[in-house]
Amino acid sequence: MTRALVFPGQGSQAVGMGKELADAFPVAREVFQEVDDALSQKLSALMFEGPENELTLTENAQPALMAVSLAVTRVLEKEGGFTLTDKCDLVAGHSLGEYSALAAAGTFAIADAARLLKIRGQAMQAAVPVGVGAMAALLGLDYADAVAVAEEAAQGDVCTAANDNANGQVVVSGHKAAVERAIEIAKEKGAKRAVLLPVSAPFHCPLMQPAADRMAEALGTVAMNAPAKPVVANVTAEKTDNPETIRKLLVEQVCGTVRWRESVLYMKEQGITELVEIGAGKVLTGMVRRIDRDLSGTAVNGPADIEAFLGAL
């Protein structure tokens, strides 16, 4: 069985995440301490105890989700002798999860990934004043139809497909009025559901250009190694292991579409049969089943998951 490791994005955070890992494994505590030190912030306390409204702030949720993913990765390595180079063929992550994937594959140091994601969260939040932008999930329309809805809804504003998550599960992003128009047009075109998402900014659309500029600057200061295994990039849905290409694609990713459905299908084309979700929640595992039932999906986020996964290797 050929395996890809995939790393979750925003929306998978929950108060209490990582606490079981920290209680059970010293190496997990070391990861959380390293992230706390890099950010000069007790992010681990926020992850373990909340409050939820602070954890959900994008500047906290992004590095927190990476921290949990890297804690799971380090536990697999230390407790189970799981090596990325031997036990998987590709890595990928959903939006911020791409940074987690790259940190797991050795492109970034954990401390650098934490600082980059803090900056990314702050820059994405600051790019658009609160209330100006919005995002909406369009369920039951395929990607081409959702793109057509976004184009029709724009009417001089910004409205684009932000995430192509799975079959019939597309997110649009842009100016609030345009996104609200997209909801109504989608319903007229037969969407099963079309709903505004509880997000603080319109991610992955051209309104994020100030954040992309900030990330170009931040990424330019960080040392990047070739990943131990190629990463399937969000914006191309193809693999690369070239650090300079990865740097450029991470900048493009801020405004670009997260092509997750295509990325999963590309991994299947590359011979992948099993996707293992590393970190908080089970969102990507659920998407795998929607995208292609021939692929198996497993979520590994707590001590019991780790034991079961290592036992099955």
Automatic annotation (TrEMBL):
Alphabetical keyword list: Acyltransferase, Transferase
EC annotation from Swiss-Prot or TrEMBL: 2.3.1.39
Xref: Gene3D superfamilies: Malonyl-CoA ACP transacylase, ACP-binding (3.30.70.250), Malonyl-Coenzyme A Acyl Carrier Protein, domain 2 (3.40.366.10)
Domain Malonyl-CoA:ACP transacylase (MAT) per the UniProt entry, residue ranges: 6-303
Reactions this protein catalyses: holo-[ACP] + malonyl-CoA = malonyl-[ACP] + CoA
Keyword Acyltransferase: yes
Keyword Repressor belongs to the record: no
Family named by the database record: Belongs to the fabD family.
Protein name: Malonyl CoA-acyl carrier protein transacylase
Organism expressing this protein natively: Thalassospira povalilytica
Gene this chain is encoded by: fabD
